[in-house]
Amino acid sequence: MDPVDHHIVSLVQSSDGIKRVVNEMDFFADDRSSKQHDKADDDVHHHHHVKTETEHHGADQDDDVNTGLNLLTTNSASEKSSVAGDGITSSQNLKEKQRVNQLADVRAELDRINAENQRLKLTLNQVNSNYYALQMHLVSLTQRPRNRIAESSEANTQMNRPIEEKTHGEGMAARQFMDLVQTETKAENDELSESSSEDRCQELSGSPGNTIVESMERRQKNNTSRNQREDTPEGLPHPAGWLSNKGPKFNNSKDNEQTQQTMAMIRKARVSVRARSEASMISDGCQWRKYGQKMAKGNPCPRAYYRCTMATGCPVRKQVQRCAEDRTILVTTYEGNHNHPLPPAAMAMASTTSAAASTLLSGSMPSADHGIMNSNIVPKGMLPGSPNLITLSASAPFPTV
DNA sequence: CGATTTTGACCGGCGC
DNA sequence: GCGCCGGTCAAAATCG
Ligand SMILES: [Zn+2]
């Protein structure tokens, strides 16, 4: 159980590749140089620049702080003028000067700290993104041998039923992945989620036994809403934990943007898995509490809403729905990232989904080896009793880059 | 008795 | 504003 998880962590921490990758990301080199000067103007400038792409909250805070300082200066200025009438001007002036200097220093310090904060935030984004990429990689690596074993040992009747076509499909899978993502993302699929469920079923049945990867995309509002919206992502799992021990410097402002987008996407990522199952719910290793059920408009099958109860406050939700006519197909859509470590069985799936989603949505991982990722992403060996896994798709709330 | 399911109410977004 | 719709809440019911 734990070994797998632990394996991930250790691999993350000790891998040279990661460190190198992390080192590559250094997109505030300019800031650092300017920061060393401690020049207020530069900092302010950067600050402003940052403000545009930061979250709402931070900007407000900054404004508040600045106004407060300004008020202070005005107050002291008035005081000075009133006192200056007495006659002792030089000492007062000096005092005043000192004070202003102090204030400037404080302000500069504050700006610097803000910049630092911002930089750390970006760093965290980067690291998270890479974490997901690596996680996916690891899953793909750990799953391939398992599948091979499963294939070799044909004895298992219902357990770990390997998907048959996998032999040559490995390289294909990834490519299909990307291709489909590209094409389908480009093509306007307005509301794939419900209305086109029939189509998807057809697609699915059309190539039964073959892994189909779709990318459904539900555009919400404008693309503008992606930059901010950084409000306490409770969905972020352990990565924050091992992040703290290191403060790597980052580079590559180009990757930065991509990373941010990727992270934003990962946060809202939806991964839908369609499986062929008679059971009403596939066991994925997590505990779920049903919190709702609705009848979908287009099809007679109700849709059930579940919430993860493995940890209090885990934001992960999933909805399970049966396909309209082919009732044997069960569509499970996961949303969010787990708050807590998952049991390994669940990890096989969940990490795959989230990580695959990250890859899907970002198109290409920032500063990660693309070559190694071509391994099979689709989870195959699953929990006993779990049906053949047919499809996996991810959706982004906005058109992918 | 605690956890989970059921199920109608409720709510926010969106199109008219 | 109104009604539809997808999604969630929460009280009651049910389960183990
Ligand atoms: Zn969870």
From TrEMBL:
Keywords: Coiled coil, DNA-binding, Nucleus, Transcription, Transcription regulation. It is found in: Nucleus. The keyword Coiled coil applies. GO terms for cellular component: nucleus. Residues 32-98, 150-170, 185-257 are annotated as: Disordered. The keyword Ligase does not apply. Residues 32-60 have a biased composition (Basic and acidic residues). Pfam families: WRKY. PROSITE patterns: WRKY. InterPro entries: WRKY_dom, WRKY_dom_sf, WRKY_plant. Residues 67-81, 204-213 have a biased composition (Polar residues). Residues 277-343 form the WRKY domain. GO terms for molecular function: DNA-binding transcription factor activity; sequence-specific DNA binding. Residues 103-130 form a coiled coil. This is WRKY domain-containing protein. It comes from Gossypium trilobum. The lineage of its organism: Eukaryota, Viridiplantae, Streptophyta, Embryophyta, Tracheophyta.
